[in-house]
Amino acid sequence: MAFKERVFSGVQPTGNLHLGNYLGAITKFVALQERYDCIYCVVDLHAITVWQDPSELPRATREVTAAFLACGIDPKKQIIFNQSQVAEHAELAWVFNCVSRMGWLNRMTQFKEKAGKDRENASVGLYVYPNLMAADILVYRATHVPVGEDQKQHLELSRDIAQKFNNDFGASIKAHGYGEAFFPQPEPLIQGPATRVMSLRDGSKKMSKSEPSDYSRINLTDDADTIAQKIRKAKTDPEPLPGEEKDLQPRPEADNLVGIYAALKGSSKADVLREFGGGQFSTFKTALVDLSVAKLGPIGSEMKKLVQDPVYIDSVLADGSQRAQALAAETMKAVKDIVGFVRR
Ligand code: TYM
C-alpha cells in the first residue's frame, strides 16, 4: 500500500538547545516543509523519563517551540505542538509496549548510556522510551523522520515495531480493509556534513545538553561574544588543516569544526577544505566565528523575543495540538478495530 508522505520529528524540552540540535535536526525540519506536510513535536512526555523540575518544564517547552518558530517553521502550514496535549501518543505507546520485545529494548545503547551503572534506579519510562518514540511517529503514519545520527537505532526499532504490528495483526488489518500493512516503515533522514556534532572540548564525545561544561557546546541563545569565545577555545590539534577530506578522519576535532562550517554554509567538507586547506586553525576559526554569529545571532534574538510572549507560544501549541489530535484520533480508531477493542 502507498502511504501518504508525511514528516514527523521531535525535540525534548530538557535544557539548552545547541548547535547539534540545530544542524542535526532543526535545519532539516525547516528545509523539509517545502516538500512535505510536517509535524514537529516538543516531546514533553519523553522529557519526564528523567526528573524534570515542574516549575522549569513549561519554560523549556516554550523555548523549543520558540526555536522552531525562530528558525522558520511555519506554524500555519505545518503542525507544531507539545506531545502531552495529544493523549493518543501514550495510548498507542501502550499497544506498542505489548508488540515490542524486551530483547529489542535491551539492545538500545541510549538507555545503557543514560541509565549508566545505576540501572535498577532508572525509570521504567526511560526503558520503554523507544516504544513511545515509535508511537509518536506511527500515530501519524509518518513516512520520513529527520534526526541526528544518535537516533538511528531508535528509528530502526520503530521500523521493527511497525513491521511486527503489521505481521501480528495481518489478518485483522486485511479484514478491516487496510490492505497488507497498516503502518508504513518510517524512513530516517540522516544526511549532510553535521549529523553528529561533537563536543568543542572533546572530539570523541557528542555535543549534548547534559554535558556539564558550557564550553562544550554552542547554545542557540548564546550571544555573539560567547559564541566567539567558545569557538576560539575549541580544542584543535597543532597541524594545519588538511586539503583532503580523508585526512580529517584521524583528527576528530578538526573534522568536527569543518563539518560545522560546511553545514552552516550549506556546502560540503570538501568545499571547506578547498578554501581553508593548508591554512592555520586561527584563520579558519575567525571565519567560523563570523559565519556562526551571522547564522545563529538572529535566531537567538528572535527566540529571546518570542519567549517573552508565552500567550502567543501557547496559542501555537494549542492550535497545533488540535490539528495533530484530529489525525492521531483517526489512527487510534483504526488501531482499536485492528487489535479488537470494543469502542463507541
Ligand atoms: P533530542 O531532544 O535529544 O535531540 C533533538 C534532535 O537533535 C539531534 N541531535 C543531534 N544531531 C547532531 N549532533 C548532535 N550532537 C545532536 N544532539 C542531538 C537528535 O538526533 C534529534 O534529532 N528521542 C529524540 C526525540 C524524539 C523523536 C521522536 C525524534 C521523541 N520522539 C520521534 C524523532 C521522532 C531525542 O531525544 O532527541
Structure description:
Helices cover 53% and strands 6% of the residues. It is mainly alpha-helical. It has two domains: 6-195 and 310-339, HUPs (Rossmann fold, 3-Layer(aba) Sandwich), CATH 3.40.50; 214-305, Orthogonal Bundle (Tyrosyl-Transfer RNA Synthetase). The strands form two sheets. The protein has a three-stranded parallel sheet. It has a two-stranded parallel ribbon with strand order 4-5. The radius of gyration is 21 Å and the shape is globular. The protein starts with 5 loop residues before the first strand and ends in a 5-residue tail after the last helix. The model has no long low-confidence stretch (mean pLDDT 97). The structure holds tryptophanyl-5'AMP. Residues 8-12, 20-21, 24-25, 43, 46, 133, 136-137, 145, 147-148, 150-151, 195-197, 206-207 line the site of tryptophanyl-5'AMP.
Brief rundown of the structure:
The chain is built from 14 helices and 5 strands. By secondary structure, it is mainly alpha-helical.
Strand-helix topology:
Layout (H helix, E strand, L loop, with lengths): L5 E6 L7 H14 L4 E6 L1 H4 L9 H15 L7 E4 L5 H10 L4 H5 L2 H7 L8 H15 L5 E3 L5 H17 L1 H6 L11 E3 L34 H10 L18 H14 L3 H8 L4 H27 L2 H30 L5
Parallel strand pairs: 1-2, 2-3, 4-5
Helix pairs in contact: 3-13, 4-7, 4-14, 7-8, 10-13, 11-12, 11-13
The site of tryptophanyl-5'AMP has 24 residues, from strand 1, helix 1 and helix 7.
